[in-house]
Amino acid sequence: MSEPMIPLGVAVLTVSDTRTEDTDRSGQALVERATSAGHRLVDKRIVVDDIYQIRAVVSAWIADPEVQVIISTGGTGFTGRDSTPEAMSVLFDKRIEGFGERFRLLSGEEIGSSTIQSRCLAGLANATVIFCLPGSTGACRTGWDGILAEQLDSRHKPCNFANLVIPERGQHG
């Protein structure tokens, strides 16, 4: 990879009824991985597992030209308040169908059949790519290391999502 990587503006959202900045290991792991890869952290928030509060934060980020990538952690399971897929999916212009499949394939190597309880998903909205990961720190590491690191690297071939959200590349929209 001889060309330089183009840093992206990243926002990280932790969806949790119990976590605080001091106890949010998953959100912090995503921040550390994104910034270590050379991306810029634009914002990081924790919001309770409420469809409308999630949508409010994410909608504002989608409208913000500084945010090119949104990564959420939490709320993708089947418990009563898990509502990230319901909150996010209506915001997508296009859904990234293979993301959940690829994540569950990678995760299955680590946690076996329990991976089917993840409703992780991804999509594009207003030239912003959005990835919704499970709430465990291990799942965040799996998602970043196995998918996001390459897909957010503008040098990754044959294709990547970075080139879809970099305005000067002319391939977004």
From TrEMBL:
Keyword check for Nucleotide-binding: no
An annotated GO cellular component: cytosol
Domain of life: Bacteria
InterPro entries in UniProt: MoaB, MoaB/Mog-like_dom_sf, MoaB/Mog_dom, MoaB_proteobac
One Pfam assignment: MoCF_biosynth
MoaB/Mog domain span: 11-155
Entry keyword annotation includes Iron-sulfur: no
Alphabetical UniProt keywords: Molybdenum cofactor biosynthesis
GO biological process, one term: Mo-molybdopterin cofactor biosynthetic process
Pathway info: Cofactor biosynthesis; molybdopterin biosynthesis
Entry's family note: Belongs to the MoaB/Mog family.
Function: May be involved in the biosynthesis of molybdopterin.
Stated name of the protein: Molybdenum cofactor biosynthesis protein B
Gene: moaB
